[in-house]
């Protein structure tokens, strides 16, 4: 007898320090134990089937100019480029890791400036929406359960609120547009929300490299909402995160989908795993 889950997409969301990565891995553990085919895509996965992590986008004219500017690397550029209906995509970081010195730094930095998450909010939303549509179509033809960490709510909110200081409505519309593309996959949203946002984030800052925290603080305070409110440093970043939490709470409440809030403030893997098992029991054809 084969277990089947009545969803093909588990979405793991929450603020930094909430335990998204651990929870996503726990979901995979549960599905593996149930012998349900699954694929896990953590934040930063360079082969993500729906999101564009470290991928640059060029229009036809921009791509033509790229080839002219770096004509001596014409063959290399063509090799690492994927052409789609909407334009040309280059997973620059993936190929930099693979090719190393064969991928010249000058070319790398030129391409990096066209990262999909450095484009205008409207263009970014358009490209991500189409990518999610493609993913949904392919996923609907498989029995695989996909587990996505952070790209459903975090990335749209980061683009619209953290970077652009756009309205909550704008952020919700972005997230909701992605939900519409995957409705047929019967997605389930697991939102991680610890009791104390400040303590959770400070724990992350203490555990991760200084370079990460400096980059995160700079991104959160020097643009969009943080810049408008003149917020600085670690404490300023925490204030931005508090605002983000309010935004994500409102988005969560408005989303028309199967969704659950998981409090894992005690950081107990065993307890979190049992909570998720209890949730998934409602969506499995056969009992655990």
Spatial shape = globular
Write the CATH fold name of the largest domain: Rossmann fold
What is the residue-mean pLDDT, rounded to a whole number?
A: 95
**How big is the Rg?**
20 Å
Helix content: 40-55%
Task: Describe the largest sheet.
Answer: 5 strands, parallel
List low-confidence stretches: none
Name of the top-level CATH class of the largest domain: Alpha Beta
Q: Could you state the CATH homologous superfamily of the largest domain?
A: P-loop containing nucleotide triphosphate hydrolases
Task: Walk me through what this model shows.
- The chain is built from 13 helices and eight strands.
- The model has no long low-confidence stretch (mean pLDDT 95).
- The protein is 53% helix and 12% strand.
- The protein is globular, with a radius of gyration of 20 Å.
- The chain has two domains: 9-50 and 146-283, Rossmann fold (3-Layer(aba) Sandwich), CATH 3.40.50.300; 56-114, no CATH class.
- It has helices spanning 20-33, 60-69, 74-80, 92-99, 105-112, 121-140, 154-163, 168-182, 197-207, 210-221, 224-228, 233-254, 269-280; strands at residues 9-14, 38-41, 56-58, 82-84, 87-90, 145-149, 188-192, 258-262.
- The strands form two sheets. Strands 2-6-1-7-8 form a five-stranded parallel sheet, with helices on both faces.
- It is an alpha/beta fold and 288 residues long.
